[in-house]
Amino acid sequence: MNCINCENCKIAAKTYFCLAQNDFVIKEQANTVEKVRTGWKKGVKEYEIHRRKSRKEVEV
User: Fold this and answer.
1) S-S: 30 plus which of 14, 25, 45, 47, CB 3.0-4.6 Å?
2) 42: exposed, middle or buried (Cβ count in 10 Å: 0-12, 13-18, 19+)
């Protein structure tokens, strides 16, 4: 198969259509990124300060 430089294989997708092969191609080693939840966590000093301030505003 001679590549015709359509550059469909260079897009960041799991599947693409290859014109040289006249077929769909599925990438086996697609990079999957797991979401990591970061931010406020109970017990963290900044979280507790923020929580207390927001509770005071609600009570007033």
Assistant:
1) 14
2) exposed
Longest dimension (CA), the chain: 73
Average pLDDT over residues 16-44: 79
CB 9 within 8 A of CB 16: yes
pLDDT, tens digit, for every residue of 31-43?
A: 667 777 777 677 7
Residue 16, SS3 per DSSP: strand
What is the distance between the alpha carbons of residues 13 and 9, in angstroms, rounded to a whole number? 8
Q: Which amino acid is at 30?
A: A
* DSSP code at position 8: G
Residue with tokens 């014109």: 19
